[in-house]
TrEMBL record:
Family annotation (PANTHER family): OUTER MEMBRANE CATION EFFLUX PROTEIN (PTHR30203), OUTER MEMBRANE EFFLUX PROTEIN (PTHR30203:SF23)
Keyword annotations from UniProtKB, A to Z: Coiled coil, Signal
Coiled-coil regions, chain positions: 351-378
TM regions (residue ranges): none
Gene3D superfamilies reported in the protein's UniProt record: Outer membrane efflux proteins (OEP) (1.20.1600.10)
Name of protein: TolC family protein
Signal peptide start-end: 1-24
Organism whose genome encodes this protein: Enterovibrio gelatinilyticus
InterPro entries: MdtP/NodT-like (IPR010131)
Length: 465
């Protein structure tokens, strides 16, 4: 019986002993996750500063506020200039005392409080778009975080693959030496070389995925950042303490109190108030509409008494009386009231959908934690024990070298699967943070071109959670 060299035992044990970090977080894990979060926060803040969609929504909200100011202003007065009582037989201004040159002003007033309500409605709509800015911020933060976690997973997988490849290369050189001495078979050497080549291909695929993720980040960080970017040390595990504190405040299946703070729900609330204001505007249609007209008539002719005719002043009050309201005012009011009901139903639907998403994510979170615990406490230990048993069998000529490689590959696969579960758990937490609030970042007011009359500094800073 050939006795396999003891160095083979050490190399194989090192290969199969490579496992992912323990699921139970140590102090070092927490510190690493916190440092990664700090770097990630910087990327999120940079992405938000560069996000064109966020700037678009902010500009739209400002445009609505400006429109609101304009809508509260009375219509411009109308100037009326003309000639009255002009004689066509003489075509002279001083022959007939009825002839006058008139100059007048006309001013129309809106019904009731329509102007104030229109300004109120415009500001409410601007508030809704402002909430859309906040919703966009959460979406960007969630997207950047997910890309960061995926990049962290790929880097962790690269670390595991590189270490296994290094040890397999040592094993290959050792087997090649023994093969030249007649102590190993050719198929063992070929099998080991094949495993090294397979790991080469996996590492190339891993590098491709990493580069693609970094390229995706350039959508927010810019092409210049991509060209000059240095290697990112990402992580597939982050510190979610803020999210955990938030989840402690909610009940098992109803999360409406937390969801009410979501910008999308605030937008739905704003839509309801906008429609309620529209009802008030529709009610103003029952009020009369007033108009004022003042005219001054200049006369050049003499009166019947031979004296210069007096100039004329005329004043008029116009009144638009809504008498036939069945097919106009009544219908518009009913339509506005229906829109209020539709907006409320839309909010209820949104809350139900978001609450269901939270519950689904919490199920995923719970099951992923259970699976990770099983990997840590059972699967990885069993795989390691099995590989050692196969390795001992190979030493005693009761197992083939291919069995040892297969066992090592199984443990490598389990290690990668564990890291995949860690990543998936953090992705779930990221989605929960986007719904319930768990991101910490600072944002500046978007820098947009302002009109000359309102150009001012906009360097305000706000903190989002």
């Amino acid at each position: 019986m050939n006795i396999k060299p003891s160095l083979l035992t050490l190399v194989i044990s090192a290969v199969v002993g490579m496992s992912a970090p323990a699921f139970s977080a140590t102090k070092e894990d927490v510190a690493r996750a916190t440092n990664a979060s700090n770097t990630l926060t910087q990327l999120i803040e940079k992405a938000l500063d560069n996000d064109a969609s966020r700037k678009q929504f902010y500009a739209q909200s400002q445009a609505m506020r400006e429109t609101g100011v304009a809508s509260t202003t009375l219509m411009d007065p109308k100037l009326k200039v003309g000639v009255g009582g002009f004689p066509i037989d003489s075509f002279q201004f001083d022959k007939d005392p009825m002839t006058n040159i008139s100059v007048g002003l006309m001013q129309q007033f809106e019904r009731g409080d329509t102007l104030l309500l229109q300004g109120k409605k415009a500001n409410q709509q601007a508030d809704g778009v402002q909430f859309q800015v906040e919703a966009r911020e959460r979406d960007v933060a969630n997207t950047i975080t997910q890309l960061w976690l995926e990049l962290g997973y790929q880097q962790e997988a690269e670390r595991i693959l590189q270490e296994n490849q290094r040890l397999l290369r040592e094993l290959t050189r050792f087997i090649q030496t023994n093969y030249s001495m007649g102590q190993n078979e050719a198929q063992d050497l070929l099998n080991a070389q094949l495993q090294v080549s397979k790991l080469d291909d996996k590492l190339n695929a891993n590098a491709q995925v990493q580069r693609r993720i970094v390229s995706q980040l350039s959508e927010w960080l810019g092409a210049e950042w991509l060209a000059n970017s240095q290697a990112l040390n990402a992580s597939n595990e982050l510190n979610w303490q803020a999210l955990s504190n938030t989840l402690d405040q909610t009940e098992s299946t109803e999360h409406f109190s937390l969801l009410l703070q979501h910008p999308m729900v605030k937008m739905a609330n704003t839509a309801i108030t906008v429609q309620q204001t529209q009802v008030e505007i529709a009610e103003q249609a029952y009020a009369p509409q007033f108009g004022v007209e003042v005219m001054y008539g200049y006369r050049q002719a003499n009166g019947m008494n031979g004296q210069p005719a007096s100039d004329l002043v005329s004043a008029y009050l116009t009144l638009d009386i809504p008498l036939f309201t069945d097919n106009r005012q009544d219908r518009n009011l009913a339509a506005a009231q229906y829109q209020v009901g539709a907006s409320k139903s839309q909010k209820d639907l949104l809350l139900a959908q978001m609450n269901a998403k939270v519950n689904a994510l919490l199920v995923d979170k719970s099951k992923l934690e259970q699976r990770l615990s099983r990997y840590e406490n059972t699967l990885l230990g069993q795989a390691n024990a099995r590989t050692k048993a196969v390795e001992r069998g190979y030493q005693n000529n009761t197992a083939q070298f291919s069995d040892v490689i297969a066992a090592a590959n199984d443990e490598l696969t389990l290690s990668l699967e564990q890291q995949r579960l860690v990543t998936d758990l953090n992705l779930v937490n990221s989605n929960l943070a986007a719904l319930l609030g768990g991101f910490n970042y600072n944002t500046n007011t978007p820098d947009i071109a302002l009109p000359a009359h309102s150009r001012a500094s906009t360097g305000l800073t706000t903190t989002k959670q």
